[in-house]
Write a structure and sequence with these properties.
This protein is of the alpha+beta class. The protein contains 1 helix and 14 strands; from the N terminus they run ββαββββββββββββ. About 15% of the residues are buried.
Length: about 220
């Protein structure tokens, strides 16, 4: 014998309790599925929120870095001319050059390091390397780190050549590459690369300044 209950055909051998249990089980399974779907949605939203937050932090760090980034370039030194009373009369530029102050086989590279950026810099190395094979390196010397404040901090330096008698050959072409390595206050490392033209009198011109980031802090 069968009977209709809530539009469902019920066999007489199934009691009402079994029916209610079955309906409850079905409703519970449906609710569990809905809850799992909502959980997946929530997890996906959370992941997207975390990714968006990480991107915002990255952009904020890049913005701060751009505002506080140092930019060190090579430039001419300035000689201060004073009178007998030590009053400054004028300043005269001293070109970037190779000098031999002791008139012996001991040449030096004379240059001013100028921080044009907004953040302080710590110079960790300066190198002069041939651009073409055999890519000789005539300058790779730094006794210690050089701190240059910002903005517009300068440091006048004489760097001893790696091989005192080995000078770059004069040429109208920029056959040599000058690299200045430095880092900012947070430890991010940079490098300014320029091309070096050497004249017959061993004075130099630097052109085509390019900055690159060589290392950064872990994100």
């Amino acid at each position: 014998m069968t009977a209709a209950f809530l539009g469902i055909t019920v066999d007489s051998e199934i009691n009402l309790g079994d029916l209610i249990v079955g309906l409850g089980t079905g409703l519970l399974a449906g609710f569990t599925g809905w809850l799992a779907y909502q959980t997946r949605k929530a997890v996906g939203y959370t992941k997207r929120s975390v990714a968006a937050s990480e991107q915002e932090i990255k952009l904020a760090r890049q913005n701060i870095e751009a505002q506080d980034r140092p930019f060190v370039i090579p430039t001419r030194q300035m000689e201060r001319i004073k009178d007998v009373n030590h009053t400054l009369i004028r300043e005269e530029p001293i070109p970037i050059r190779f000098i031999n102050p002791e008139q012996r086989d001991h040449w030096r590279f004379q240059v001013r390091l100028w921080n044009m950026g907004k953040g302080p810099a710590v110079v960790t190395g300066i190198f002069i390397t041939e651009r073409v094979p055999p890519r000789r390196q005539v300058l790779a010397e730094l006794d210690g780190e050089i701190a240059i404040h910002a903005p517009h901090g300068v440091s006048d330096r004489h760097f001893d050549l790696t091989t005192p008698t080995q000078l770059p050959e004069p040429s109208e072409d920029a056959l040599w590459r000058l690299r200045i390595a430095y880092r900012d206050a947070t430890g991010v490392e940079y490098e300014t690369t320029s091309l070096l033209q050497v004249s017959d009198d061993l004075t130099c011109s630097c052109i085509d300044f390019r900055q690159s980031r060589t290392a950064q802090l872990p994100s």
